[in-house]
TrEMBL record:
InterPro entries: NTF2-like_dom_sf (IPR032710), SnoaL-like (IPR037401), UVR_dom (IPR001943)
Annotated SnoaL-like domain residues: 124-242
Annotated signal sequence range: none
Pfam families linked to this entry: SnoaL_3, UVR
Name the UniProt record assigns to this protein: DNA binding protein
């Protein structure tokens, strides 16, 4: 999302003034009064190119809450140390085999454990690819299907505060895409994936270019996924602008 800049207090208006996020002529967008505009006014050079953005709304700016991801089944922050039963069992079996000096069996278990971890990494990368495909095409329906609906998923767009809650996160993507022409050009570099049990994350450099823009915007991105009923869903997207 191309919200990049420092925050100041909102003024009373339900207008969004955009001297395009990616360059171009100014547009005034009327938003419904119920739209949860962020409390801060964003004023900056566009993350994906030159431009200027102001967000103003007359409604109370309280709907976007601080970023905090929790599970519905308890009040604890999502624990990245939680691990799957299969992986736990294999690790226990590996330890037992080593203690019994059954090194042939230990080698087999170690190979199985490595295969499981590689399969998990491939699945997380596939989910990350689907996320960027929906981003590239402005496909809101696809984006909605990719995010976790449990707990409070969190989205941090470039230069903005965190937005939590599934509905609010989806509204933020819809708002960001209001002024885009699709498809966007998106390239990823320095992609790394890590998995620990039911949680996986991808870090990468994200480069975005829009139609009519001559420059690329760069962000360092962390995408966190959680496995629910065997499927990986994104629960945190954090994009930080990088000067290039």
């Amino acid at each position: 999302m191309a919200l990049h800049g420092s925050g100041v207090l909102c003024k009373v208006s339900n207008m969004v003034e955009i001297t395009s996020l990616f360059g171009g002529s100014m547009r005034l967008l009327h938003l419904p009064k119920s739209y949860p505009i962020h409390c801060n006014m964003v004023s900056a050079s566009n993350t994906f190119g030159s431009g200027h953005l102001k967000l103003q709304n007359k409604e109370p700016c309280s709907r976007f809450r601080p970023c905090r991801v929790k599970r519905e089944d308890n009040n604890q922050t999502a624990d990245v140390k939680s691990i799957s039963v299969d992986e736990t069992t294999l690790k226990q079996d590996l330890e037992t085999a080593i203690q019994e000096e059954n090194y042939v069996e230990a080698a087999k278990i170690r190979d199985k454990l490595k295969e499981l971890q590689e399969d998990n990494k491939a699945s997380v990368l596939s989910a990350n690819s689907r996320f960027y495909q929906s981003f590239r095409n402005g496909d809101l329906a696809a984006m909605q299907s990719l995010w976790s609906k449990s707990g409070n998923p969190c989205c941090v767009h470039p230069g903005a505060k965190g937005i939590t809650g599934y509905d609010y996160v989806m509204e933020s993507w819809e708002f960001v895409w209001m002024n885009y022409e699709f498809p966007l050009q998106i390239e990823l570099k320095d992609v790394e994936v890590h998995v620990r049990g039911e949680v996986g994350y991808v870090t990468c450099m994200e480069f975005v270019k829009t139609k009519g823009s001559s420059s690329w915007g760069a962000q360092f991105v962390s995408n966190v996924f959680e496995r629910i009923d065997g499927q990986w869903f994104i629960c945190i997207h954090h994009a930080s602008p990088v000067d290039i």
